From TrEMBL:
Pathway: Nucleotide-sugar biosynthesis; UDP-alpha-D-xylose biosynthesis; UDP-alpha-D-xylose from UDP-alpha-D-glucuronate: step 1/1
Lineage: Eukaryota, Fungi, Dikarya, Basidiomycota, Agaricomycotina
Protein name: UDP-glucuronate decarboxylase
Compartmental location: Cytoplasm; Golgi apparatus, Golgi stack membrane
Pfam families: GDP_Man_Dehyd
Length: 421
C-alpha cells in the first residue's frame, strides 16, 4: 500500500478506491480496502508468556484483527495455537437469482486466491479444488467455514463432480521451477485436468474459462503478440511441459466447444505479480523484491536487455471476470503492455524498496545488481497486444507498475514481520 498520506493513483492519475466494474450483467466492483484487509496485513501472531495471557488474547476481538487468522505463540512451551475467526469478512447479500455457484480449480494459488476473494466478497458461492502442490490453505483460510465457501483437497487429474454455473480452471503450476519439478505431472495436469473439467462443464452446462498463458507464443517472432499469432514454441525444451501443455489444453477446450457446444472462454495471461506470490518460486518480481528487502545483490539473468511486461493482480482479476461474463469465445490476451528491460526493472524495484523503507524509517544500504548467464529457452521479448480485450471487454490495465510494486513490497514486509519470509 502506498504510504498512508498517498492515495493509490491509476494510469490516468485517478484515485483507485475500488476494483472491478459492472459489465455484461455481472457487477464485480468491490472496495480496495476490503481486499487489502485480506492480503496486506501480517497474519496476527501474538506471543504470550502464560496460560492466563493466552486466554485473554484468544478472546480479544477488535476491528483490526477480527478478519485475520489468529495464532497465539506460547513462548514457555514453544507451541502455537490457532483460534477460529470471530467474524468473516463482509460479503454482499445477493438474491438467489443472481448468486452463482462457481468452481475455482487451483483456487489456493496466487491468482486463484485473489479471484476467490473477489467472488466471495461479491456474494457468490465458491468451491475451491486444489491439491496444494504450489498453493496453500493459508491463502483462503479466512473463508474456511463461511456458508458460501468450500475447500476441497483434490487433484484435477482425477474426475470431480459438482453442480455449478461457472468453472474457472486455473489448476496448474505456473512458475518454471515448479512446473519443471515433475514435467510429466505438469503435462498430465494440463491435459487430463482440463479434460476432466471440460467433461464437468459439458455435464453441468457450466460456462468454462481456462487460464492459458502467453507462453503459448513461445519465443515470438511477432511483437506485440496478437491472439491470432500461432507461436514459436520448442516442443522438446525444458519449458515445453508447460507451454505445450497449455497449447493442448486450448486445443481440447475448442474441441469441446465445437463438438459438444461447451460454452468456453480462453484467457491468455501475461506475466502477473502481486501479493501472495510465492517469494521463492524464481519469478523475477518476487526474486528482485526479496533480494532488495534483504539487502542482498539483485540477480539479473542474461545481459538485462530482454524485455518483459508486468501486470498487477487486480487488473488480471478484472479481466478474467469480464471475460467469463462476456460473450467472447475466442482467446483473449490479458496483460499489461508497459515494457521494461529486466535491467531497468531491477533498478525500479531497487528504488521502490528504498522509498518504502525510507517511509517506514528503515535505513538500508543500496543493493547491487549482478548479471548471471541466461537459462535455456528463456524468451527474449514478450508483450501483449490487448486490442481484443479493449474492444470486446472494454478492459485495459489501470495499475501502474510502480503502484503495484509498492503494494508487493509492503506485502513482503508484512510477511517478514510475521516471520514467514
Ligand atoms: N501468474 C502468472 O503470471 C500467470 C501467467 C500466465 C498464466 N497463468 C496461469 O494462471 C493459473 C494460476 O497461476 P498462479 O500464478 O496462481 O500459479 P500457482 O502455482 O500459485 O497456482 C496454481 C494452483 O493450482 C494448484 N494445482 C497445481 N496442480 C494441481 C492439480 N493437479 N490439481 C489441483 N490443483 C493443482 C496449485 O496447488 C496452486 O494452488 C495457472 O493456470 C497458470 O498457468 C499465470
Amino acid at each position: 500500500m502506498p504510504s498512508s498520506s498517498e492515495p493509490s493513483l491509476d494510469k490516468s492519475g485517478k484515485e483507485i478506491t475500488t476494483v472491478g466494474f459492472a459489465r455484461f450483467g455481472f457487477d464485480s466492483e468491490v472496495s480496495l480496502d476490503v481486499l487489502r484487509s485480506l492480503y496486506l496485513r501480517a497474519h496476527y501472531v501474538k506471543t504470550v508468556a502464560s496460560a492466563d495471557e493466552a486466554a485473554k488474547e484468544a478472546d480479544r476481538d477488535d476491528a483490526s484483527t477480527s478478519y485475520l487468522s489468529k495464532a497465539i505463540y506460547h513462548a514457555d512451551t514453544k507451541s502455537i495455537s490457532y483460534t477460529t475467526l470471530s467474524r468473516f469478512p463482509p460479503v454482499k447479500l445477493l438474491p438467489p437469482s443472481q448468486r452463482k455457484r462457481i468452481l475455482v480449480t487451483g483456487g489456493a494459488g496466487f491468482v486463484g486466491s485473489h479471484l476467490v476473494d473477489r467472488l466471495m466478497v461479491l456474494g457468490h458461492e465458491v468451491t475451491v479444488i486444489d491439491n496444494f502442490f504450489t498453493g496453500s490453505k493459508t491463502t483462503v483460510s479466512h473463508w474456511v467455514g463461511h456458508p458460501n465457501f468450500e475447500l476441497v483437497r483434490h487433484d484435477v487429474v482425477e474426475p470431480f463432480m459438482i453442480e455449478c454455473d461457472q468453472i474457472y480452471h486455473l489448476a496448474c503450476p505456473a512458475s518454471p521451477p515448479h512446473y519443471q519439478f515433475n514435467a510429466v505431472k505438469t503435462i498430465k495436469t494440463s491435459f487430463m485436468g482440463t479434460l476432466n473439467m471440460l467433461g464437468l462443464a459439458k455435464r453441468t452446462k457450466a460456462r468454462f474459462l481456462i487460464t492459458s498463458t502467453s507462453e503459448v507464443y513461445g519465443d515470438p517472432e511477432v511483437h506485440p503478440q496478437p491472439e491470432d499469432y500461432w507461436g514459436h514454441v520448442n516442443p522438446i525444451g525444458p519449458r515445453a511441459c508447460y507451454d505445450e501443455g497449455k497449447r493442448v489444453a486450448e486445443t481440447l477446450t475448442y474441441g469441446f466447444h465445437r463438438q459438444d457446444g461447451v460454452d468456453v472462454r480462453v484467457a491468455r495471461i501475461f506475466n502477473t505479480y502481486g501479493p501472495r506470490m510465492n517469494p521463492f518460486d524464481g519469478r523475477v518480481v518476487s526474486n528482485f523484491i526479496v533480494q532488495a528487502l534483504r539487502g542482498e545483490d539483485m540477480t539479473v539473468y542474461g545481459d538485462g536487455k530482454q524485455t518483459r511486461s508486468f501486470q498487477y493482480i487486480h487488473d488480471l482479476i478484472d479481466g478474467l471476470i469480464a471475460l467469463m461474463n462476456s460473450d467472447e469465445t475466442r482467446p483473449v490476451n490479458i496483460g499489461n503492455g508497459d515494457e521494461f528491460t529486466i535491467g531497468e526493472f531491477a533498478e525500479l524495484v531497487r528504488d521502490i524498496v528504498a522509498k518504502v523503507q525510507k517511509e517506514d524509517g528503515v535505513d538500508v544500504p543500496r543493493v547491487n545488481i549482478v548479471y548471471k548467464p541466461m537459462p535455456t529457452d528463456d524468451p527474449q521479448k514478450r508483450r501483449p497486444d490487448t486490442t481484443r480485450a479493449k474492444q470486446v471487454l472494454d478492459w485495459q490495465p489501470r495499475w501502474t507498475v510502480q503502484m503495484g510494486l509498492e503494494e508487493m513490497v509492503r506485502y513482503y514486509k508484512a510477511k517478514m514481520v510475521e516471520g514467514s519470509l
